[in-house]
Write a structure and sequence with these properties.
The chain has 7 helices and 7 strands, in the order E-H-E-H-E-H-E-E-H-H-E-H-H-E. The chain is α/β, with parallel strands linked by helices. InterPro entries: His_Pase_superF_clade-1, His_PPase_superfam, Phosphoglycerate_Mutase.
C-alpha cells in the first residue's frame, strides 16, 4: 500500500528574513514564522495524519512543535531530512550560496555536500518510511533538499532539471510513495 506524503517547508526563519542561507546551522523561527507554523497546524490537524516527520534542525523542529502542540500526533525527528550542507558557506548570504546551485550538483560545497548527496540522503528516508508507514498519510517538514528528493525519487524528475529551479512556497505538496 502506498504512503501518502504531505510535504511542507519549515516556517519562515530569522535567517530567511535576513537573506541568509542557513544550511546545517540550526536557525530559529521569526515572529512571522511562529504565526505561520500555528497556521500550518490549523491547516493540517484534521488531515488524518499518522505521524509528522521533521528535519532535526531547529527551524524545522520548531515548526512541527508549534504546529502540532497538544494534538497527540507523533512528531519524529530525522537528520536525513536536513537541508543541503553548504559547508563553509552555511550562514552566508543566500544570493551568494544559491547563485548557481547546479555548480554543486555533483561537486560538494567546500566542507559540505553536493545536492546529489543531500537528495540521496533524503532518499534513504523514503526507503525506510515506506516499510513502516505503508497505507498511512504522513506529513514531512523539511527544506529545499527534501522537496528536491521527493520530486526526484517519487515523481521521477531528473535532478539536473530541479537543482536551479526557483523554489516558490505554497501550502504543501502532495506525494504518493509506492513501495
Amino acid at each position: 500500500m502506498p504512503v501518502e506524503i504531505v510535504f511542507e517547508t519549515h516556517s519562515v526563519s530569522q535567517d530567511n528574513e535576513r537573506g541568509i542561507a542557513t544550511g546545517w546551522l540550526p536557525g530559529r523561527l521569526s515572529e512571522r514564522g511562529r504565526r505561520l507554523a500555528a497556521e500550518l497546524g490549523e491547516r493540517r490537524r484534521d488531515d488524518g495524519l499518522a505521524a509528522v516527520f521533521t528535519s532535526d534542525l531547529t527551524r524545522a523542529a520548531e515548526t512541527a512543535s508549534l504546529a502540532f502542540a497538544g494534538t497527540g500526533v507523533a512528531i519524529l525527528h530525522d537528520w536525513r531530512l536536513r537541508e543541503c550542507d553548504y559547508g563553509d558557506s552555511n550562514g552566508m548570504p543566500a544570493d551568494q550560496v544559491h547563485r548557481s546551485r547546479s555548480a554543486y550538483l555533483d561537486q560538494p560545497y567546500p566542507g559540505g555536500e553536493s545536492w546529489r548527496q543531500a537528495v540521496h540522503r533524503v532518499g534513504r528516508f523514503l526507503g525506510d518510511v515506506s516499510l513502516r508507514w505503508s497505507g498511512t498519510r504522513i506529513l514531512v517538514i523539511g527544506h529545499v533538499a527534501t522537496r528536491l528528493a521527493f520530486d526526484h525519487f517519487i515523481d521521477g524528475v531528473p535532478l539536473e532539471e530541479l537543482v536551479d529551479a526557483d523554489f516558490s512556497w505554497r501550502e504543501g505538496w502532495e506525494y504518493r510513495l509506492t513501495a
